[in-house]
Write a structure and sequence with these properties.
This protein is an alpha/beta fold. It has two domains: 109 residues, FAD/NAD(P)-binding domain, CATH 3.50.50; 149 residues, FAD/NAD(P)-binding domain (3-Layer(bba) Sandwich), CATH 3.50.50. A six-stranded mixed sheet has the order 7-6-5-2-1-8. Strands 10-17-11-12-13 form a five-stranded parallel sheet. It has a three-stranded antiparallel sheet with strand order 14-15-16. α8 links the parallel β12 and β13. α5 packs antiparallel against α6 and α5 packs parallel to α7. The longest helix has 20 residues. It binds flavin-adenine dinucleotide (FAD). Flavin-adenine dinucleotide (FAD) binds next to α1, β2, α2, β5 and α7.
């Protein structure tokens, strides 16, 4: 009996849901073999990533092991390096021990997601922080605490303000949620720094469209904007972030915002 081999590359939402579907439909079929390959052996619930950055959740709260969800399916923890469509072969490097692996397939589902797009802005790529992975969230949290500490040692008013200014580029899901989390965290935490005042904090989201959260439509986008403004977040609509040198964020309309942190959530491109 010939076995039909289905390979799913990428274990994010798309890959996992496809795998769950196959798991349910094909589990009893001896003539079909489904393999999920992903470079992490867990699914990350990105909509709650900002809560890890804000310290409201632990990293373990927003991940779920793929092997536990897909008990009857073959899972390979590996990084996909290349696909040979003619030979129907996929080449990978195992996530542990760097071992080279190769799999043949009859059908391939590519669900590798996206990676951050810096639109060829070298300064932004070199100096901004991103928000896509668990380590991004942990780094952002550590960074906020470190900046509060640094600002508390600084006497110069302008330097303190620069250290405590957080700019987010992009008002989609990721940018809006992260901005809210950063704002809540720093305003809440500054109370434990007697040398600092809340008024030194500036949290800004820069969004090129007419309203934030375009994924949800105008009404909800404007509602979210009102809520952010009530919490003292500045929402700048229209211009884009055009440059960042680690010290000043420059917008496409020429506005300069001195800021120690630029959070880049303004674009993705398909995984290479
Ligand atoms: C902070 C944040 C908040 C968000 N909030 C929301 C929200 O509230 N609502 C909403 O609808 N969307 C939200 N999104 C968007 C949502 O996360 C994405 O739309 C969704 O993850 C896309 O699913 P995907 O399966 O295509 O890609 P991904 O979820 O990115 O999955 C791709 C998978 O492939 C793996 N992979 C990539 N390259 C390789 C390789 N070479 N080899 C092996 N494995 C590889 C990755 O590790 C990952 O597991 C948010 C995103 C972020 C970053």
């Amino acid at each position: 009996m010939k076995t039909t081999r289905i390979v799913i590359a990428g274990g994010g939402f798309a890959g996992l849901y496809a795998a769950m579907h196959f798991n349910k439909r094909l589990a009893r079929r001896a003539d079909v073999e489904v393999t999920l390959i992903s470079r992490e052996n867990f699914i990350l619930f990105t909509p709650m990533l900002h809560e890890v950055a804000a310290g409201d959740l632990y990293p373990g709260d927003i991940v779920n092991p793929l092997r536990r969800i897909l008990r009857h399916m073959k899972f390979i923890d590996a990084d996909v390096q290349a696909v040979d469509l003619n030979a129907r072969r996929i080449h990978c490097i195992a996530s542990v021990a760097d071992r080279e692996l190769e799999f043949e397939f009859d059908h391939l589902l590519l669900t590798l997601g996206s990676e951050t797009n810096f639109f060829n802005m070298d300064g932004v790529r070199d100096w901004s922080v991103t928000m896509k992975s668990l380590s991004d969230a942990a780094l952002l949290r550590n960074r906020m605490v470190a900046l509060l500490e640094e600002a508390s040692l600084q006497n110069d008013e302008a330097s303190r303000r620069q250290l405590l200014t957080f700019v987010t580029a992009g008002g989609g899901f990721s940018g809006t949620e992260t901005t809210g989390a950063v704002n809540d965290f720093v305003r809440e935490t500054v109370r434990y720094y007697p040398q600092l005042r809340e008024e030194l904090i500036r949290v800004v989201v820069v969004h090129p469209g007419n309203f934030i959260l375009p994924e949800l439509g105008e009404e909800l986008g404007r509602y979210a904007e009102r809520k952010l403004r009530e919490r003292k977040v500045e929402v700048i609509k229209g211009p884009r972030v055009a440059n960042y040198d680690g010290v000043v964020v420059t917008l496409s309309d020429g506005t300069s915002i001195p800021a120690a942190t630029l959070i880049w959530t303004a674009g993705v491109k398909p995984s290479p």
